């Protein structure tokens, strides 16, 4: 069994009072709770804190934990002789058990998997994982291999974390923040209880060309000044291959050109749109010939884009 | 250990869940769920029609509410307040994301 220093996790002295422990937990929960925190690794940190608090807030568990002595975090250790007789009426092997699963059996609570724990069905636990997918995967749908550690119970009813690979089908229709439920892919149920569910929180990886707004996509479309003035047809990339887009003559910078139904597919029906935002791009260096042509144009043109400045 | 693909279900508001399904998924009792509806944590699609049905995305709200209740040791009204504020934060974050998407990026 690997040692975890619950006091260190919470930044507490071993002599901390129950009140100190509660106060510190509340402070850390506000800082790291995944629903309210923007800290990096908030979820992981919160899990560690919650696990430590679960043991330290309970006088019986805390006393049992203190008697384990102080070791280096992560160090393999065995409880001192007689420990299990003092704190538990159960036999168990300490091999491959997580410290938190050991303490989950204290205070009259039977381990979830206890063979002696009655015959009534217990549903499996639900799990939630964050999954990043590409825009192409959101568009086409995809199948991902998710690696998870799920508990399995030994004959004494103790949980052992076992790595699982869950194949998750992500149907098309995802967008940022969308949730997906995979039925029966969480923890196993006991005594015939249903298996838990696995919830995926989907987020989208940034794409080099497309930006996402709901199910719509935005793309910057640079045009030369002469393409914008004269009009043309250009090739525009979409997630489902290139399309030809007609640029009307007199197109201005900032104008949005809509390519219908080339956004992300919606889960129920249809798809968002792709918007190409026109940018007028100019060459930063020009040849002598080009410069002469521009000079000729400057001389000929009556166009004044700032005429409205004078109307004040 | 590897298993075949599972049934995938989008929890979006186009799909509906029955009261029984929501009770089963949330791990709440039906009376707790009714108390939460009364407190405004979630709303049935049509409160007049029994048995109630809910938009599938309420499962996300319920999971958040259960977490908040347990991890912060909150009463029902504090949970309702936090859920309301979190909803607003998420809506505003989505709006910022959508507006940012419309801003041109500078090339080169």
Radius of gyration of chain B: 17 Å
Q: Taking strands numbered 1, 2, ... along the chain, how are they ordered across the largest sheet of chain B? A: 3-4
CATH architecture of the largest domain in chain A: Orthogonal Bundle
| Main beta-sheet annotation of chain B | 2 strands, antiparallel
Portion of residues in helices of chain A?
Answer: 25-40%
Q: Let me know the largest β-sheet of chain A.
A: 4 strands, mixed
What is the terminal separation of chain A in angstroms? 79 Å
How would you sum up the global shape of chain A? elongated
CATH topology of chain B: Multidrug-efflux Transporter Regulator, Chain: A, Domain 2
The CATH level-2 architecture of chain B is identified as Orthogonal Bundle
Number of helices of chain B: 4
Under CATH at level 1, the class of chain B stands as Mainly Alpha
- Strand tally of chain B, please? 4
Pair with the most extensive interface? A-B, 52 and 36 residues
Describe this protein's structure.
The complex is a heterodimer of chains A (312) and B (108). Chain A has 312 residues and is an alpha+beta fold. Chain A has helices spanning 6-10, 18-32, 42-56, 59-67, 83-87, 99-103, 135-140, 225-230, 288-300; strands at residues 127-133, 142-153, 159-170, 179-182, 198-204, 210-213, 216-223, 232-236, 243-247, 256-259, 274-280. In chain A, 25% of the residues lie in helices and 24% in strands. In chain A, helix 2 (18-32) runs antiparallel to helix 3 (42-56). Chain A is elongated, with a radius of gyration of 31 Å. Chain B is mainly alpha-helical and 108 residues long. Chain B has one domain (16-102): Multidrug-efflux Transporter Regulator, Chain: A, Domain 2 (Orthogonal Bundle). Chain B has a two-stranded antiparallel ribbon with strand order 3-4. In chain B, helix 3 packs across helix 4. Chain B is globular and about 55 Å long. In chain B, 23% of the residues are buried. Strand 4 (179-182) of chain A pairs antiparallel with strand 2 of chain B, so a sheet runs across the interface.
